[in-house]
Amino acid sequence: MIRKYFYLSLLLVLLFSCSKTSTPKEFMNTTSVPIDMYQNDVKYLEKLTYDRLDSISKKNISKGVYNTIPVSIIIDTIFYGPSNKVSYLSIEKRKNKYSKIQNPNNKEGIQYNGECYIGTKDLNNNSFTILKSLRYTVSSSEKKGYNTVLKSLRVSYLREMNYVDGCFNINDIRFWDSDAWHE
Q1: How many domains does the chain fold into?
Q2: Cβ atoms within 10 Å, residue 1
Q3: What is the domain extent for residue 85?
Q4: pLDDT tens per residue across span 78-135
């Protein structure tokens, strides 16, 4: 029951955060899904994103490039579009020994990285395919790094993309037919 209220409050936070956007009202994505579907999709995307980043990290480690395995993944927002397209904001928490050097207040060596992913959902088996991460990422090793990354990620993809020539915010219905899907 507590988990249900958590996700309900998360959706309210998302609705509030989406009101701070540069997307014109007539182009706002108003697609909604049932709460249980959203909750299941969050869990699925957290695991899928973790597995993807874990795989990339292991390849980099085997090549001698310093990298660490993610500690956890938090899916902040999922947007649903036509043709089973999805877009979501993801924040990765990982241990990074260099974070302690960059920020002496970060005794645990935690770094947060935020990205926006696009993909598709197979409605027959409720699985997702991540097509790619979009261009702009956010990173912080500050003590309150999670909040810094979350705010910057939302600003980038819910406000600023609208001002880049040929781009749209991810909460804009025009985003689903934009070049982001064809590059």
Answers
A1: 1
A2: 5
A3: 2-181
A4: 999 999 999 999 999 887 666 655 666 656 777 889 999 999 999 999 899 999 999 8
